[in-house]
Amino acid sequence: MSxxxxxxxxxxxxxxxxxxxxxxxxxxxxxxxSLLSIIATEVGVxxxxxAQLYDDQFIETCAEWVxxxxxxxxxxxxxxxxxxxxxxxxxxxxxxxxxxxxGTAAILEGLARDATGWPAHAVEFFRxxxxxxxxxxxxxxxxxxxxxxxxxxxxxxxxxxxxxxHTADVRHIASGRGLYNIPSxxxxxWRLPAYPLTLSPAVRLDGNRFLFDPLGKDTQLFxxxxxxxxxxRISRQLNVPMPISRRVLREYLESYYGPEKSISLxxxxxxGTDLKVEEYGPDLVASCNLDDREDGGWAHEPEHGISVDxxxxxxFFSVEPPQGFILARLLVTYHYAFSADMGGGEYDRAASIRTxxxxxxxxxxxxVRAAIQQLGRDEEPTLTAAAREEAxxxxxxxxxxxxxxxxxxxxxDSGRYEAPPSKINVGRTRSLIVQAADGHRPSIVLGGELxxxxxxxxxxxxxxxxxxxxxxxxxxxxxxxxxxxxTLVPGLALHQDGESRQGSEPSLRVExxxxxxxxxxxxxxxIRIEAGGETRITDSIIDATDIGNVAYAARNGPGGRLNIRNxxxxxxxxxxxxxxxxxxxxxxxxTARRKQEGCVRFSFLPPSSEVPRxxxxxxxxxxxxxxxxxxxxxxxxxxxxxxxxSRLCAQEIRRGADDESEMGAFHDLYAPQREANLRARLExxxxxxxxxxxxxxx
Length: 698
Known about the structure:
By secondary structure, this protein is of the alpha/beta class.
C-alpha cells in the first residue's frame, strides 16, 4: 500500500493537525505522515503475502515449494525432488486429465514428458508386429515387407518413429533389449535439448563455401521442437529435437526452414558504409549432399541458389549480390544439441549477469545489428535497439572507452569477433567484466595467446563467451579470476572434422601467485595454476583431450589448491592440496602432494591415484577397476553427446553421487531421479498386461 493512500484514509482533522504541527516548528516533515510511511511499508509486505497465499491455492500460480503439497491432494507423491532441473508442476496440473484417459499411448507420452522434463514419444510396439492378418480386417499400413518406393518409412528405420513391421522379440522391454512384442510399450526420451544460435556469422571457407558452426567445423543440425497443442496427441518428428537428415529437409523444407524454425539464412551486403539485409526464402534454398570430393571441393555444388547440408552443417552459396554491393556476412540461425546449460549459449543466464552499478560499454557487430533492426528481430526494441545503435563494433573499442576506471563490456549478439586485442591491462583495484548479454553466445576467435595483466587486487570476470584460437593467460597481481558459463575450446582450436589442433596445450594459464580462480558451468581445456593460487571448479568439464595429458597443474610442478565438485576431468591432475573432490569423475591419475589435508568423496578416480582420504569412491580396489568405469556417449568436444554418461555405464557411476544422482559434470540434471519418477508413475497408467520400457533416443 502506498504512503499517500494510507494517509488519505485518516480523518481530515488529523491531517490538519499534522500540518499545523509542522508549522509550529516540530522537527520532521509531516510527522504523522512519516510514521504512516513506515506502517505502509509493513502493510505492503502483508498485502503481498496475502496475495501469494491466494495464488498458492492454484497449481498454475503457486510457489514452487507448494507444488508437492498440492500433489499430495491429488495423490501425486513419493517422487524425487529434481530441484531446478525439472518442476513437478506440469504433472500435478495434468493428473486429473491423465486419469480420465489412462491407458492410452498419448497419456503415457504426456506423463513421461511431465515427469522427466524431457521430450518424449510413446510407441505401442504390437502395432508394428509382422503377423498373419484376418481377411475381414486387413491392415494395409502394416505390411510385412516395406515398400521400397516409399522413402519416409525407410528414413526412420531404427528410430523412435520406425513404422516398418518387425518379427516378434520375446525379451522383456523393461530390460531395454526386447522391443517388438504384444505387451511392449516403449517410452522414448530425448536427453539432449536443441539450443539455438541466432544470426551468427557463418565461417567462410572461400567465395561460395560456408560452415554453420562458428568454430569452423562440420556439425549436425537439429530440429527446433514445436510444442504440442493437445495432451491427447502423439508427438511427431517436428515435436522433438531430432537430427535433421538431408532427405527430410528436402521433402519438408518449409517445415524446417524459415524464421522461428530450425534453420534460416540472412545475407548482409555492403556498399561502402551502406548495409543491405536480405532474408532468403525457401524458394532459393535446397537440401543437398555437400560431402567432400577427392579434388578438395564439395559434391553437388549448384550454379545458382543456396544448398544446405544439415548432416554436415555446410552451405554452398551461389546468389548474385545486388548491383554495386558485395556479400559482407552470411548470418545463420540453427540449432545444435547438448546436454545442459553449460559453456555458454542462448539460454537463461540472468543469475550470472553482473553489472554492479559499474560503467557499461556495449559491443555489437554492425552486420548483426543491421539484420536485427531491419528484420525486426529485437525482443526489446525500446531498450535494446538504442543500446545496439550506440554499441562499439569491436572489443578493443569498448575496452579503450572504459579506460582505467574499469567496468563492464557487454556483447549484445551471437556474433563472431575475430582478431581481438592480444593484451588487456587491468589497473589497481579495478574490476573488469567481459560478458555476453543474456540470451546470446558470441564467439571470440583469437589470433594467439591473449594476456590479461592486472595490478594488485584487480578482478576479472568472463561470462557467456566461446573463445577459440588461443589460450588465456592471466598475469600480474590479480586477486580473482572468474569464468562463468564460458567455453575455452579444448585443444585451442578445431579442424574441420572436429579434431583438436593442439590437444596437449592448456587453454587457461593463471600466473598470478595468489589468485583465486572460480570456474562455474564451463568447458575448458587444460589449466595451469601456480602453487600459491586456489581454484574452485563447479559443474564444469576440464578436457585435456586425452587421459595422458595434463588437465590441472602448475607450469613446473603441482598446481594450486583445488576444490572441485560435480565435474568431469579428462586428463591427469597434479595439485598441491586437493581440498575437496566431490561427485567428480577423474579419468586420469590424480596426485595431491599433501595428502594429510582434504578428502575425495563420491567420485571416480584411478586406483593408482595419490589423494587424501577417500569416502565412497570407485573403484574401491583393483578387483573393481576392470568392471566399474565410466562409459560415455562421446569424449570429443563438439559432439552432441560430449561427456554424457552412456546408459550402459555402471550403476555405481550413474547413481554414485552423494544424492544418488550421477557423478560428473551433468550431476545437476538428476537423470537417474527423472527416470525413477517416470517408472514410479507408469504403473498407475498402464493397461493390465502391458509392460513399459524407458528408452533413450539421445
